[in-house]
Amino acid sequence: MRKQLILIFLTAIFIFVSAQDIKYSKKEDFKKQFKSRFKDYKAVMLVDLTNKEILFEKNAYKSLEIASLTKMMSILLFVEEIEKGKLALTDTLTASTAASKIGGSQIFLREYEKMPVENLLKSVIIKSANDATTALAEKVGGEGKVNLFVNMMNSRAKQLGLNKTTFYFPHGLPPSRKNRKKNKEANKSTCYDLVLLAEEMLKYPIILKYSSTWLDHVRVEKGKDDKFELRNTSRLIKDYPYFDGLKTGYYFRAGFNIVATAKKDGSRLVAVVLGTKSMKGRDKFVNALVTWGFDEIEIEKIPEIKK
Questions:
Q1: Model confidence at 227: pLDDT above 50
Q2: Comparing C-alpha atoms, which of 193, 120, 176 is closest to residue 168?
Q3: Is residue 74 annotated as a catalytic residue, yes or no?
Q4: What CATH number belongs to 23-167+185-301?
Q5: Which of 27, 71, 122, 127 is catalytic?
Q6: Which end of the chain has fewer CB within 10 Å, C or N?
Q7: Residue ranges of the domains in the chain?
Q8: DSSP structure string for the chain
Q9: Which residues contact 226 (CB under 8 A, 6 or more apart)?
Q10: pLDDT tens-digit series, residues 29-42
């Protein structure tokens, strides 16, 4: 009886662990193993979305604070709302007091300022603007209440199988003391969950359109002199080839985080790195990791010469 219970217990553990990476198989055969002296990260994962294979991972299922990577889910919900016809890019929203005072990365929305949805959306994707995120969240959530939108975020996370992801805010700012007293903690996720989320986001061309844009502007309407520059928070799309997204995030406790997407010769890779102390070091590491990944994929495409 005891042996049977132990066997059942071990089987349950095996099923639980296996279920974590059921979406992607783990590639084992490489022509050259990836090596890097850069160890300044808490977790990392590289996935070949084209072949549904995990190429590299360390601590990829560990739940960590993700800062503004949070906005990946917010962006997905905004775009899904547009796709459903419930929100139009040409609609105009009015900034609330809360949106205008949110702080952090922003486009400095003025209280009651009116702005088209498309400008707000690209401000979120390119600039990671917290005020634009809040304005859209209040609209999509309904009744101007951000907490209703957060409920939508967590519900969508469950639908997508993001089993170790929890959202308390739509923007990714660290929780204040006041919020902690209300049991609102930092948003958390894993590398694996963020790959799943990235794959869903990549279904929508408008997301890649703006996540691959280095510079843009808002408030460029005729007669206005307060044009505001949007500079992408990821230098990967400017400094290295093949990168076209997707999102960065930072605050001190979370560290520098990134979900980077790249496409070469029809192959699509997603790299996630969480918890680094150096943005430049992180970007060089991601580029090296993705370059290695593409090299491995190219080697597989070359047919073996028959002797």
A1: yes
A2: 176
A3: no
A4: 3.40.710.10
A5: 71
A6: C
A7: 23-167+185-301
A8: -HHHHHHHHHHHHHHHHHHHT-SSEEP---SS----S----SEEEEEETTTTEEEEEESTT--EE-GGGGHHHHHHHHHHHHHTTSS-TT-EEE--HHHHT--SS---PPTT-EEEHHHHHHIIIII--HHHHHHHHHHHHSTT-HHHHHHHHHHHHHHTT-TT-B-S-SS-PPPPHHHHHTT----EE-HHHHHHHHHHHTT-HHHHHHHT-SEEEE---TT----EEEE-S-THHHHSTTEEEEEEEEETTTEEEEEEEEEETTEEEEEEEEEES-HHHHHHHHHHHHHHHHHHHHHHHSPPPP-
A9: 219
A10: 999 999 999 999 99
What would the pLDDT profile of 22-32 be if each residue is shown by its tens digit?
Answer: 799 999 999 99
Q: Which one of 68, 74, 105, 211 is the catalytic residue?
A: 68
How far is Cα 55 from Cα 288, in angstroms, rounded to an integer? 13
C-alpha 275/C-alpha 171 separation (Å) is 18
Give the CA count within 13 Å in the CB-facing half-sphere of 131: 24
Q: Of 271, 77, 96, nearest to 170 (Cα)?
A: 77
Catalytic: 86?
no
Catalytic residue among 100, 105, 128, 211: 128
68 catalytic residue (yes or no): yes
In the block, residue with structure tokens 């990392």: 44
Q: Which residues does 58 contact at the CB level (< 8 Å), separation at least 6?
A: 41, 43, 44, 45
Whole-model pTM: value is 0.90
Question: Residue 273 is encoded by which pair of tokens?
Answer: 């790195």
